[in-house]
Each structure stands twice: as C-alpha cells, then as structure tokens.
Amino acid sequence: MDMVIAGGRIVDPATGHDAVGDLYIVDGCISDVPSARPDCKRLDAAGWIVIPGLVDLHTHLREPGDPAAETVLTGTAAAARGGFTTVVAMPNTRPPLDTPDRIGELAQRAAADALVRVLPCGCLTQGRAGVAATDMSALKAAGAVAFSDDGDTPLDERLFEEIAVKAQRLELPILDHAEDKRCSAGGVMHAGSRSRDLGLPGIPEEAELLAVDRDIRMAAQTGCALHIQHVSSARTIERIRKARDRGIPVSGEATPHHLFFCDTDVTSTDTRFKMNPPLRGEHDRRALREAVIDGAIAVLATDHAPHTADAKAKGFMDAPFGVVGLETALAATFTLLVCQSGMPLLAWLRRWTTGPMRILGMPPPRLAPGEPADVTVFDPEAEGLVDPAQFLSRSVNSPFIGSSLKGKTMATFCRGRLAWLDDDGAKRLRPES
Ligand SMILES: [Zn+2]
What we know:
The protein contains 15 helices and 18 strands. By secondary structure, it is an alpha/beta fold. Strands 1, 2, 3, 4, 5, 15, 16, 17 and 18 form a nine-stranded mixed β-sheet that branches. It has a four-stranded parallel β-sheet with strand order 9-12-13-14. Strands 6-7-8 form a three-stranded parallel β-sheet, with helices on both faces. α8 links the parallel β12 (226-228) and β13 (250-254). α2 packs parallel to α3 (136-142), α4 packs across α7 and α7 (205-222) runs parallel beside α8 (234-245). The mean pLDDT is 98.
C-alpha cells in the first residue's frame, strides 16, 4: 500500500535528520516523490514522531517447541505493535537452531507468517550442550547473522576459544549470555539483602562477572566481536568500559526491565519479576542507566521471553525465568530515558536502530529515498497503563503491567506493508485523493 505519512516529526538516527515533513512510501520503499496510484493512502501524523522501525537484537519467538507461549506469527505481531520491524530470533528453541536446516526452516516459517523481518541467530554449540561447536560457517551460509547459546554459556574455555576464532574469521558477533552456572545454580533472584529477607536462593553477581572476564579475555586474544547480552551488574559495565578503552571489540546491551526495576521490586509471589540475569541492586540500575545515556552501552534489547500463564504460575522457585518485552520496550525506554532522564531523542533512537545493526555489521534502517520502508510512527504524548488484554503476544508475563508509560506506536510499516495500525492511528488514515 502506497502511503503519505503527513506532517510528522521525521527523526532519522542514521543521518541525524530531525524535522517536520511528509514521508512517502511507494512500492515498499521510501520515495522522494509521492505515489501517483489512486489507492494511495494518507496518514495524518501531526504531533507524532516518524522513525525507522526499531531493531531488537534479542527476541525469543518460541517456535518451534513452545507454540502455546509464542509463535513466529504472534511474536512478530507483538514486535510490530511495539514499533519493531526487525528482530533477531534467539536459537534456544526446541529443537535449537544448531544446523543449517533448522535455520532454513525458521526462514521458511518467517516468510509465511512473520509480520516483521526475522533474522536468525545460530547456536554456538550442538544442542546448546556446550560440548562441541556447531558448523558455524554452514549456519552463516544458511542465513545466521550472529551466534549465541543464549540461556547458557559454554563453560569449556578451550571450546569457547575455538568458537571465538571461528566467529572472528566469519566476521559475525557472539551474542553472549554471560553466566557461569557453577556459580548461579539453584538461584532464583539477585543474591543480596532482599533475597535474604525473602528467603529465596540468590544468583550472585559473580556468576555474570566470571563469564564476562573470561569472554573479554577471549575477545582480546582472538579479536572476535563479543556482545554481552542483558548486562545486569555495574561491575560488568566497568569491565566493558575498560575493555573498550583497550580497543577490545566488546559491547553490551541493556533491557528495559533492568533499567526500570531492581531487586527491591521482587516479591516471593510475583513471577513476573523472575528473569535471568535477575534484577540487581539500585546501584546497578543507576549504573546501567548512566551507561545507556553516555553510550558505553550502545544497544537496548528486549530479551522478549514469553512463557505461558501455567508455567509462570508454578511459584517463584519453579517458574521459568523470563519476561515479555516487545510491546512495552519503546514506551518504557522513551518514558524513562527521554521524558524522565533528558536523553536526546536521537541518542535514544540510536540505541534501538544504528546500535544493534552495528553489532550485526549490517546497514542501519534509514529514512532515505530508495531504502526499504521500515517505518514506525508513534505518539509521544499518549500515556496509559500497560494492559495485558491488549497484548498481541501469546504470553503476558510482563513486569510492566499496571505501569503508566508514555509513547504509543500508532503505525508500523515493514518493507512498506502495514504491520500494525492502532485504533487511534486508523482514525487518522484516509484516501490520499
Ligand atoms: Zn540470556
């Protein structure tokens, strides 16, 4: 559908462009002239912000393996509603994405069902068992854009070194779930005074730090691009800063939930606050916010991890780790970072667009003529309580339910196709002529 997005504030982090104007979509691409087709539509975007579609470097689509929690269709519908046009699908499905055939099957499913672009991530090790490396070059040939055993870290140092050498040669990053499970086993929340008060077994910060230290050492030795997923600790941030100062190719990502909450929000009954790594202390949350604002952490990522209500009802000890995030990420980070912390709009947007694409070594989405029309329109003034009844995700395990957030996605276009249109967006859509 050709479109004129009229009178919005067009903000493009790839070029720094920030001005009110019209954006034209013609034949799936951005155009410098409007469409001549009679069925062209006009979206009145006055007062709204027009941006490139967001990129999530860390999404769990759960298909194959757990379609009751999420599918490619529902997960990408949630992504579109959240303003995302590209998601990187983590490989810890059942079975995992550890062969070229499985990468190919996901690509086929995405071609049939997905509302946004799905980029597959391949496993580091066969069966994610941490014993033998996958055929990483075959995974890349099949379409993998990165490697991860997310949910686990290969503990065998020699094996990790072998993997890092291969990743460096293939020029793809390792997305690193940095956790030494010899240190974290049995824990369900951050180990600290709160876990002692609640009588819940803790996950010490050292579980993350041990893995981060080893993996930064591996990145220094091999030159492979190491991206630390879901950074939870202030001390991890210090390590990333120091490594970058030394020229080691290390980066990190922060999730909205780690930026928003800390361990004092955890109660022993509410499993919406059980995730891995856990919410840590107030000091860690503050350090994470500072790092995202000053750019030491240049990537925001959701770690969207759907689980069924039954699974999450098993109690804090037994429920699985993880929270959904795609449908609240834009509003949560816009509210916290831009509205409350004064982060410039362009800098915030870079964390969701150019930042993640740089990790992948891929060109960022741009609002320039000839580029694929991956475009999100959001209302920066719309404010409301997060309501799970509106989620398109099949799961509702969100710690943001009931939070009042600012910023609402009105429309999302992926390759020029309307992937999401809010009811309030539909009210402003009409024929162009
Ligand atoms: Zn993880």
